[in-house]
Amino acid sequence: MDFDLVIRNGTVVTASDIWESCDIGIKDGTIIAVGPNLPAKAGVDIIDAEGAYVTPGGVDCHVHLSQVYEAGVDDLERSVVTDGAIPDLPNYVADTYDTGTRSAVAGGTTTVVTFASQMKKDESIIPVIEDYHKLAKDQSYCDYAFHVIITNPTENIVENEFPRMVEEYGITSVKLYMTYKPMRLRDYQILDVMYSARKLGITTMVHAENTDIIDWMTKSLEKKLMTHPHHHGTSRPPIVESEATNRVISLAELMDTPILLVHISSAQATKHIRDAQTRLLPIYGETCPQYMFLLADSMRKGDFEGAKCVCSPPIREDKADQDAIWAGIKNGTFTILSSDHAPNKFDHPNGKQRGLQHGNLPYGKFRHIPNGLPGVETRVPLLFSGGVLTGRVSPQKFVEVTATNPAKLYGLKKKGSIGPGFDADVVIWYPQATFKPFNLTNEMLHHAIDYTPFEGVEFKNWPRYTIIRGKVVFSHGQVVGKMGYGQFIRRGKSLLPGPRDVWLSEWRP
Amino acid sequence: MDFDLVIRNGTVVTASDIWESCDIGIKDGTIIAVGPNLPAKAGVDIIDAEGAYVTPGGVDCHVHLSQVYEAGVDDLERSVVTDGAIPDLPNYVADTYDTGTRSAVAGGTTTVVTFASQMKKDESIIPVIEDYHKLAKDQSYCDYAFHVIITNPTENIVENEFPRMVEEYGITSVKLYMTYKPMRLRDYQILDVMYSARKLGITTMVHAENTDIIDWMTKSLEKKLMTHPHHHGTSRPPIVESEATNRVISLAELMDTPILLVHISSAQATKHIRDAQTRLLPIYGETCPQYMFLLADSMRKGDFEGAKCVCSPPIREDKADQDAIWAGIKNGTFTILSSDHAPNKFDHPNGKQRGLQHGNLPYGKFRHIPNGLPGVETRVPLLFSGGVLTGRVSPQKFVEVTATNPAKLYGLKKKGSIGPGFDADVVIWYPQATFKPFNLTNEMLHHAIDYTPFEGVEFKNWPRYTIIRGKVVFSHGQVVGKMGYGQFIRRGKSLLPGPRDVWLSEWRP
Amino acid sequence: MDFDLVIRNGTVVTASDIWESCDIGIKDGTIIAVGPNLPAKAGVDIIDAEGAYVTPGGVDCHVHLSQVYEAGVDDLERSVVTDGAIPDLPNYVADTYDTGTRSAVAGGTTTVVTFASQMKKDESIIPVIEDYHKLAKDQSYCDYAFHVIITNPTENIVENEFPRMVEEYGITSVKLYMTYKPMRLRDYQILDVMYSARKLGITTMVHAENTDIIDWMTKSLEKKLMTHPHHHGTSRPPIVESEATNRVISLAELMDTPILLVHISSAQATKHIRDAQTRLLPIYGETCPQYMFLLADSMRKGDFEGAKCVCSPPIREDKADQDAIWAGIKNGTFTILSSDHAPNKFDHPNGKQRGLQHGNLPYGKFRHIPNGLPGVETRVPLLFSGGVLTGRVSPQKFVEVTATNPAKLYGLKKKGSIGPGFDADVVIWYPQATFKPFNLTNEMLHHAIDYTPFEGVEFKNWPRYTIIRGKVVFSHGQVVGKMGYGQFIRRGKSLLPGPRDVWLSEWRP
Amino acid sequence: MDFDLVIRNGTVVTASDIWESCDIGIKDGTIIAVGPNLPAKAGVDIIDAEGAYVTPGGVDCHVHLSQVYEAGVDDLERSVVTDGAIPDLPNYVADTYDTGTRSAVAGGTTTVVTFASQMKKDESIIPVIEDYHKLAKDQSYCDYAFHVIITNPTENIVENEFPRMVEEYGITSVKLYMTYKPMRLRDYQILDVMYSARKLGITTMVHAENTDIIDWMTKSLEKKLMTHPHHHGTSRPPIVESEATNRVISLAELMDTPILLVHISSAQATKHIRDAQTRLLPIYGETCPQYMFLLADSMRKGDFEGAKCVCSPPIREDKADQDAIWAGIKNGTFTILSSDHAPNKFDHPNGKQRGLQHGNLPYGKFRHIPNGLPGVETRVPLLFSGGVLTGRVSPQKFVEVTATNPAKLYGLKKKGSIGPGFDADVVIWYPQATFKPFNLTNEMLHHAIDYTPFEGVEFKNWPRYTIIRGKVVFSHGQVVGKMGYGQFIRRGKSLLPGPRDVWLSEWRP
Ligand SMILES: [Zn+2]
Ligand SMILES: [Zn+2]
Ligand SMILES: [Zn+2]
Ligand SMILES: [Zn+2]
Ligand SMILES: [Zn+2]
Ligand SMILES: [Zn+2]
Ligand SMILES: [Zn+2]
Ligand SMILES: [Zn+2]
Asked: Whose CA, among A21, C404, D113, D245, lies 20 to 30 Å from B24?
């Protein structure tokens, strides 16, 4: 047994089990043995976990980096890609692969799945994928993969390019929007995507909000001058999400194809997903820390401070929605926990301040506030500190939703768990007894953003080491990995249940 | 007590009570007394009910007459109105006010609410209403009122013309389509209509089917050459209806406005309505006899015979759906039973035969079959014979769904019941003991259509007399009323519960 | 048309319709005509309703009079009946037929159905029925009928005496208790009753609370000295009711027999009933004004004042339960509204004060507080004033649940509505414009009880006249009827849907 | 790394992950390393898995051995224990620890949890536990633990002996019956048990059937001479189970204590459990292979052959129930799969033949047929062959419900998984490519019973090796372990979520 690195004496957690006083033996970036007292030859690197929790590196499958922005900017287009330097334009997210993945590893995340986003005018997704490859290549601190956002599912794309996307590019998931004018698909188009996705074993991610309600409410609120940041939430009550969730579940049932509902925020949408799962439909759910740890009062701070917490779906008013999200984590409705890291600067004219550039109102217009929050660095520590250490979720459930299930759902076969054959992507926490709790400030974080929505939140632990394929990339507060170490990961098909071959009429695909 | 007509010795039924051995005293078209042994002066007309049931005249609130056709004919427009003479064009229904209301009274219906249908290019609904007035005036055997079908809810129409529609024209309901290309509204447009409808106390009727699914499935089935009439049903499985039903209930909850889901056909949509009613939303449901008495095998007869039963939503495959419709009648989910009389001839090039004009297939293409069935004459007798006389529904429930609730829902204040102050619209049935059951043939009916989907059904009773405002218009199988006797009825606001002033966010209308 | 009495110019309400400016012609105690301007010969009594509401006399089907008390008094037995003079013993309710029905008519109730209660040792129910006849005969101001409470369903009783009860005595309903030691039946015994009830068309009323939970919680609370009156509620959280409700619905489904769940108080039990009705089971629900107008804080007043509001099931803590009860009235889950008039004096050693006689605690022991509230006089005005006049329920719904449905459910064929052939049992309200709202004090009431739980509640109207079979028995605040005018009413079978002949296994009755 | 045994080249499955080409290193009965190519010194035992599945040894937590019989034998008592020799009496199950555990290991089960059963007259459970220890000690081929069946929860037992049971005896679960006259508890007694169980971290298992319905139906069926074996099912329709399931979930919610519903057989009971889990109640569900692989026609074979499949709850009539059980396995409603091995011989006067000893009927009386089936040997292979190999469940789900979750639920901390620190309890399957499917006959099995309900079922694989604490006990069809090798396992508290500290009223334990 020839190791490069041995992690000693961890309380190792998988989605199922806990192995106490356990070592992890790593060779060539892969875990090749687990067990107590593994024999280490001289010269082998040793890290002593001192009995602390050792968990799989976080897999964050909803991260926007170097991307043309998802929210409602109708009039701009994808610029030429220039090695990850994000143009200072309002339709780009404000973290590159550089800053975004640096932030990821500092928060215990070892793999991100980001988005390669088709623009409506793009007649092919192949150059889109290639462009994003250029943006990410040699720029990433952690491993990464792509989902492809489909905004214009032409026959050529779904029939001819989807197979290439899967086979040549190792991309096995696409994302759709039911809202946002530049991206949204009609139900008809969603069916086109699903039809092809089913054949190819693609998982379809869906941002489910009813775009017509949002547009209508926004227009109406503006007439009433109700345009404060928190009215963003007013324009999108939970029914906006639950209606669209029910609708797209209906489409998926008709097509018998697996989907993931992204960033679910409300009780009623959660119920729709749960009911579908009860009936064994291959419907998966995602939620995010902002829906577990924040409420809508975060959007009411100051005249415009609330803009920091403007995202879609909005953070909810009602504690009952927040409770339902926690319940959904515990009872298994939510397959994965992602950050939806969609970073915009606050104090920047192309960031949240854009909301102030319209209408001569002191509190701006929520319609023009770029949607999204940064969160890739805080996701894993928030659930560990606020979930595991408070007893709200078990260590195994923490591992399941932050690492194992994301990897399974998206076909990251060697990611998301600790065990023989898995990539040695590992987080070592601090021994609990010696850790001094602290309150988060944005300066502690490693993204390019000038705020965090979780400012002031107390953390009772934090990743001490983040290890990717056997290399320490973050240690005791310092990013020690190198930009460019992160590799692109080709993905296989989902390892979670797929189509059932149950049909609603005589029609068959 | 000065009567024009006394109906003697009836078993009089209201939606609540039964009055045995009861007379009805009528003066100037109005019921002015009920009770046993009413004193009748010499010369007063007397009809002896001989103890038989006497029920309120049927109120059928879903009848298409002299109308540009609702189904998917994209390329034709409303022609000039010429006194009720329906142009021999494929986009017109095949019954005029003349033939349609003649058929109505022969089946015990005394009031119909028909449709005045805006075409998408119509920039005003006022001439539409006027045109339909011309079509109906002096042409009708029974009383009538209009719903206005809105296919293009411009700001001018919903803001300025809806108030005129209500105030000047006495029209307090509109109908929307979520499917059919020439008529369908997007959710945004539905919200525009609902917003104004709420303010004005208008009831909004909705044909709820997901148009994108239908279009997608139709295209896919045609590729597979699955275009037989019964594949019309294949293209629209129950989820098409239940999705749209859930969606429009969501819109109505958001807007806090009453809606009626028309012609509900499936268990799952019925459940959505029931659940909404449990929560006290002002959601009303309508079903039709075809969903209670027929199953999808009716579309499988012969090569093309099945086209006779092609309507939307389709008649269902699964007996469980049919059972759910019956249950919905009994437990109150369905507020009203209507015919959805949407008549097309079978053996006519602009009728059902149009389905054969495409594709050189022996069984045609279901896409081109005009949707709809005749049924205004059979609606009341079917529920009486197949419901009351079989013990499946009580006489009071029969009255409630065929007359009282339709009148209440649509603000027909003097219609729909028997009692002091109500119009003397009455059906007298045959004494049960002496009635000889018969099997229906189309020749017995009075519409202009060459078939009935209920051919061969056994009837255990039938209206013996139909009386409208104190005049006998149908007697012992003969229409004895006069064309033009029927009057237009201005309507008031719904008498059933309306908005609750419950809101889903800070937004208020 | 020869009338004894004509009521002029009422706004007459049935469960379905409203007849404005309507007269009611009455002869020999029966309504023989309704209509405007009925001709009245000279000498006929005339009452001018002045346009006010005229509603059917209240039918209160849950009234305890002259009865051995239902609550947990284990050690006492039914005494010899002595013409309605209630023994001053702790196990007797404190209103006789005299005082109770006087109170009823003063509150607009014209028929009460009271209880003839078998004691466990009674081997026959025939003498029980006879005894209660003696208690009621010549003692009642209003009409009355009996339910028989079955506490020991021997084979002889269910097989041989139930048929006699129905045929000879005109009693078509029985009541069972799932709690209270002296009365409760095991599920096995309930099945025995249901089996016979089904054959005979008997409606079975059930007091559904889980007796074991109550006993266990009471014991446990007493150990902790949590014995304040409001801990009565603590001992019986809503799950006590919802569990038993689900259980007895299961038994009724198995036996395919109609039941009424009495005095439902909580959201969850309401949901069980609603779900059963959705599936068309013949399950009926009753609630009472105390669950609509009071909350559990009424049991927290003073040291012991709260004892006034101790009843079972308890008045609920959570406004959500109260809201659910209102919703159940509106959406039809509750078939009837009854008072559950179960009167005990407060300031009497055999009344509520019994709760202070144990344990040397300043706030007594809730276990020993006789359960029950007076309410027969307030039931009808509460729903009229707090429901109809606030717009929460329609006039028709008010009539339905206070009069029409109770009469239908229990086979009171000539009661509960206004129309030809019905008994002339009528309430005339004050013209709204001229009525001066007042706040209720117990002195205004006519029962024998020294308090009302509704003390201080504002009433916006009150019955101006109560008329029974054509005689005014209450007028402008004065009881003008005579004790003994009230008659025993033999009842027929329920007029609401009964068994469905649907079975859960090969077994058939 | 010093191993006693190395298993080479397995496809190792945990409840979460699959490790391909993986070795397992075992020392002193414990797994001390997993990983490819573990170094084995000379002399170490090697087993080559040849790439086949290697799964955790089965943990069967519902096994009746050497036990006074659970079913309805009212008149017999627990005999003196004589070293595991089961008296030939009708109230004893027909497998001892010897034959039962021999059968277990031959079917891949390495730990059984059996029952120590209090008789109603036993005033202490301590001697009961001691007696069963004598029955099991030195008699078992596999490891074992005890649940204690409580049939008379006296204050002394729940207050004083439960703590001893947990602390001294390492028994952390009890089982209750809601039916069977000699064992059933009233709800009150269940609350007594739950109250103490909550304090001590005991998991309460519940056999949930409504005993009164069963008794009543049995009596009624016997009157009708409907006593064939399959009428056992007639007497216990699914509502019997669903009612009791809902009831005991209510009790558990009130007491905030975890329970396991044993041997769930029907859709409706499954729904109750699922709904409780949705609300995060600590409600766990168990089902058994007989409800997944058999239907009620198995009870209709021959005149009396059906008696072989008489168990309670009965195997169901409706495929929809069977489907719901499968769905419950897949969606996580069922925490564990157990055998409910409750063995009776068929051709033995104290076995199933007892059903023929009454009533002179050719097909006997189902009431007298001992309830229960043998199944400890077939449980694991059935789910592997009929579930994993058919694609109906994943290998991880198979492991979860047959091993990992049973161990977690019952606090078997070192059982149920493969990983460092776990006992080396392992099943090695045959390489699929080379395995020849066979049809099961009872002769192949190792129990003491003369039939199997799964006679003729095809198996596509079977355990090739069963290993307990590093020793091979079953190999290539031969039991090679020794009687007495199995050890008693002291158990800790459940590792699955327990009480939530959510209360339904002011009451607190
Ligand atoms: Zn999104
Ligand atoms: Zn996003
Ligand atoms: Zn339509
Ligand atoms: Zn129509
Ligand atoms: Zn009661
Ligand atoms: Zn009562
Ligand atoms: Zn059992
Ligand atoms: Zn068992």
From this structure: C404
